[in-house]
Structure formats: C-alpha cells, structure tokens
C-alpha cells in the first residue's frame, strides 16, 4: 500500500508539469531506473558485484535494433530478441564465473573482461554495427492501446507513460522475487554462502538465476533507451556506464528494490542542474560514490527509511 | 544401515588429517566422536557433510554412494552439520535465519511448484513455513529472541540457533561439531535437553566433543580418533577406560 503513495504522484506529474525538460529527465530516470534496479538485484540483494550490466544493456540495444533491421520484426519482438540474447549470454558467463566460484573482486574483474570483450566486438564488427559511428534510428516502435488501436510510440507523453509502466513493472517483478523464498536464498548467498550451501541451498543455481534475471532487466532498459534516444553506439558498453549504474544503486540505497531509481534521478538530473562537460561528469560520479560510501552507506532511501530491512 | 563410512582418507598436501577411517551408523544411533585437539574430528565431519572431498574412500548413504557430492546435495540427501564456531546470517533476525534454513523443507513439500509461487496471483500461503519455524524455535528455546538480530545473541544462543537451523532442514542424520564448547553450565544443560529431545524423536546424531563427560552420558556408542585414525569404538564408559584412549588424551605415563 505504501508503494502506491510512491507511484500515484508519478502518474499525475504530466498533468501538473508542462516542462519538456523535466519530463525528459524523468523518462531517462525511469529507463535508467530499470537498469539500476536490475543491477541491484545482483549487487544489493545477492551480493555479487557484476560489471557486465552496461554490456547487457548495450547488447540488448544492438540486438533489438539489428533484429528489426535484418529480420523486419517489430519493436516488441525485437526487444524480446534482445532479452533472449542477453539471457543466453548471461547463462554462459554466469556459468563460467559461478562454476569456478569466483568471489567478490575476481567476479567483478572477470565480468568486466567479458564486458570489454562485448564492447570490442561491437566496435570492430563495423559491417554489422557501424563501429564507432553508431547507428541513428529512423524506425518508431508501435504499441497497441485499448480504444486507440495501434499507435506509434512518439512524443514525450507517450514515452513518459511507457517508461513509467516499464519501471513500475520491473519493480513489481523484482519485489515479488526478493520478498519470496527465492529472495531468502539470495540473502543467504550475500550474507554467508558457505552456510547457505550446508543448509541445502544450491548456491550456484541461485547466483545464476539472480545474474540472469538482473541482466534481463538491463536488456529491457537497453531496448527502451536505444529507441528513446534513437541512437546506439559502443559507449553503451563503456566503463563510465558501469560506474554510473553502481553509483545509482549506492546513492539510492541497496536494501530496497525501488531505491536505485532515486539514485538514477539524482544522476540524471545533476548535469541539468549544474552544467558540466563529460569529463567533469565522471569526476562527479566518482565524488558521489566516495561521499555515498562515507556519509550514507545505506543510500538516500536507506537514510529516509531509518530502519533496517527485513530479509 | 544409514551411513557407511568406508576407508575414508583425507590428505592436505603431505599432511594426513583423516586416515583409513571406517565405521557405520544405524538409524537412531547417538554416536560420539572423541579425540584430542587436532585429531581430525572436524575434518571427518567436513568429509561426511561434503565440505571436503575425500582423497580416498567412500561414503554410502542408505545404499547410495555420496562420495564427491557437494554440501547442498548432501544436505538435501538428509545429512546436515552444525559448525563449531556458529555460522549465522548475523544481520537477519533469529526468525529469518531459521526461515532461510527452511529451504529444503519447502523444496521437499512443493518441489518445482516453488517457481509458481513467484507469480503474482499466487498467495504466499503455500510457501508458508512459519508454523514449523515456531515449533523449531520453541524446541530450541529461542522463542523469546525470535525478532532479535542473530548477531546479538549470546554465544550459547548462537550455538542453539545453529542447531535450530540444522533442525529446520529436517535431517535424517545431524552432525554436531563441538556443540558444547565454550558454553556455560546453563547452556550445556539446555543443549543436553534439546539433544535428548531429538533422541526421543528418533533422530540419528553424530556428535563431536572433547568434553568427555557431557558426551559420555548422551552417546550410545563412542568412536575415539587420534592422529586421524580410529583407535577405539564401543560403549562410551568402556571405551574411555581403554588404555590407548587414555594414552591419547593424557600421554604415555598415565596409560
């Protein structure tokens, strides 16, 4: 019930705010919110620092666009292709990492290596991906809406509600997982995986499920982000992007499913509040990360909630 | 026959921690494993529970070979172990610790339908373990602490929570690694009562301890190990009078 208080005002924002900049910031917040929330399933709830998240985001963006361009499928089917592609890749990478029981930094480094590998493939396979130049989109997704039939997804309003629905659904699905017996398995892995194993929990299986389910969320975010900004390039895979995702999760708070959205809002709005160039932005991310860890290790939402989380 | 340990050997590099160990456990047995510090008791338990893979030898569990299975597979087969130094999910409450340990119970109860309970139209009821959790907390005398963080328990409480979590797994065979070490008299009495309760419920127990008095009263059978090898086996009072055992504990002159 409390969560409704959070979502209803967001439904009403476009009725009150007639400022395109604000709405655009919110759209990016929602889409990057999906990315940060899904990252936090792996990082905050299961305790695995994955640096593959930006790559899952980028791979899905490319897979969606390329499947539309080459197979002529629609946007939603293209997104499904992106999700399936990312899922398969995640199963392979997850199996490699978790079979070898890579812990903490080793896992982070190996996922970073896979992420760089993906970036280099996209960068150098120019005939397919157009390399550094990236791809400008000319296609528009369509959406069936009750009462209005099939309409193009265009304009700020349309994207606002589409991205809001997507992020709300993401939060709903992950909440369902986190507050179930499966969430307890994730928590047991985060807190003491040796103990979890002796209690009969298949640590490998649940690490893999968490990794795949998190990356699938990144895939959804990737497709939406690509089509909202109508442009993809290898920067989707950059380490900056991975850092930004970590900063969002830490800043918002790791203990609550929806909290990283608050981090996404801060980091999306920040460059508009203070005008900075790209290099300075990295500096600010770094500073925020350090400050967040030092001053509020539980993040903005963690401080507001005041109480420790249940499971 | 519940468990058959056949010629179990574990070498760490040049060190032989457990050598050519063989014994059998029957349903309902209470077996005490004695031995001085460093004699290989904990290694033996870690071998049985799958934490270590034996260098040689076999574990046969109810007629099925278990050698080489991982700890979670062995736990699922029905062998659960508690740790000498309590291992807990310290940040979580006592209740949640036991709830996590309910994983196997849930798995046995509803199998793959677990996945369906994640669907939105599925109520939480089918995956509810709270009744069983209350029962286990009551049995281990932890009910007053159920909402406290596990990390805030006394040492005795932590050990008892370890037992509670193991019980929640509903093992056929419970391995207890020095459950009494570091406990005061009250906690020991409490533990003794809990273990007697379990015995009355027909659970098979395998308890390690070097505190001979406590274990001697509880166990039906004692196995004494020294330098990783079995040196005596039999009724506790008899075994503890055995010359080799006295020598292992107290040294040559006393034997």
Structural summary, described in words:
The complex is a heterodimer of chains A (311) and B (255). With 311 residues, chain A is mainly alpha-helical. Chain A has one domain (2-238). Chain A is 75% helix and 4% strand. Chain A has helices at 2-16, 20-45, 53-71, 75-99, 104-124, 126-129, 156-178, 181-198, 203-229, 239-252, 259-273, 278-295, 299-305; strands at 135-136, 142-145, 149-152, 231-232. Chain A starts with a helix and ends in a 6-residue tail after the last helix. Chain B has 255 residues and is an alpha/beta fold. Chain B has helices at residues 41-48, 71-77, 94-101, 103-110, 113-116, 130-139, 155-168, 185-200, 212-218, 236-239, 243-250; strands spanning 3-12, 15-25, 30-34, 56-61, 64-65, 79-82, 173-177, 204-208, 221-226, 229-234. In chain B, a hairpin with a 2-residue loop joins strand 1 (3-12) and strand 2. The two termini of chain B are 35 Å apart. The A-B interface holds A 172, 176-177, 180-182, 184-185, 187-188, 191-192, 194-203, 308, 310-311 and B 49, 51, 70-72, 75-76, 80-81, 83, 87-93, 96, 99-104, 106-107, 114, 117-120, 124, 127, 165, 169.
